Hints:
- Helix content is 60%, strand content 14%.
- It is built from nine helices and six strands.
- Keywords: Membrane, Transmembrane, Transmembrane helix.
Amino acid sequence: xxxxxxxxxxxxxxxxxxxxxxxxxxxxxxxxxxxxxxxxxxxxxxxxxxxxxxxxxxxxxxxxxxxxxxxxxxxxxxxxxxxxxxxxxxxxxxxxxxxxxxxxxxxxxxxxxxxxxxxxxxxxxxxxxxxxxxxxxxxxxxxxxxxxxxxxxxxxxxxxxxxxxxxxxxxxxxxxxxxxxxxxxxxxxxxxxxxxxxxxxxxxxxxxxxxxxxxxxxxxxxxxxxxxxxxxxxxxxxxxxxx
Length: 243
């Protein structure tokens, strides 16, 4: 009974937990992994699944013998346990490094983009509907649960349309559905091909929340070292002044 209980625990610790910590270390979120075991566990499970797939793809003739280890076969355990532990840990380091590279590339793209820098700094900016970033910013508003207030210059009219974007549609017949600021019941559909520019009137990531979650803080620090702490301090000061 003890042996039957010990083996699954040993396999769990050595093939999921340890690689999970290796994954978080290699991806640059080791500190968060220490505080959040769910993150470690999820990364370990993903790494384990990828490892099993690679075993079947690259070593299909030995895959059956390796899997016997999980059924408690002592001979298979003696042959493959330490090899499997090292292999899964190395794989976790590689996957974590890839994750860090992708995060860094995304952060670098944001850091080099004037539009995103203005958005995160809370500065108003204009974009064209022919730029993908216009739609990406609208998605960002949805993610942070903030109402996008815009001023739209429309072809053929001298008066811009200002209000809240209720709906954004892509495609050849896409456009924006905007509710007027003075009269919310006044709704205007603006086809994409008639939009000249869109000015975002209320940008700003920091203004959208009263608390900074660890994921957002780490992401902001990737954009610029110390930016996460700066935003967190601003939120704290704002909440203190409001109180």
